[in-house]
Amino acid sequence: MALSDKILELKKEKKAVILAHNYQRPEIQDIADYVGDSIELSRKAVETKEAEIIVFCAVDFMAESAAILNPTKKVLLPCLGARCPMAQMLTVDEIKRAKNQYPKAPVVLYVNTLASCKAECDVCCTSANAVEVIKSLDSDTILFGPDKNLAEYVSEKTGKKLIPIPENGFCPTHLLFQPEDVKVLKMQHPNAIALAHPECSSEIRKVSDFIGSTSKMCRFVKESHAQNFIVGTEEGILHRLRKENPQKNFYLAYEGAVCPNMKLTTLDRLYAALKEEKYVVNVPEAIAKKARVSLKRMFEV
Ligand code: 13P
Ligand code: SF4
Question: Which protein residue has the closest C-alpha to ligand 1 atom 4?
Answer without folding.
Answer: 37
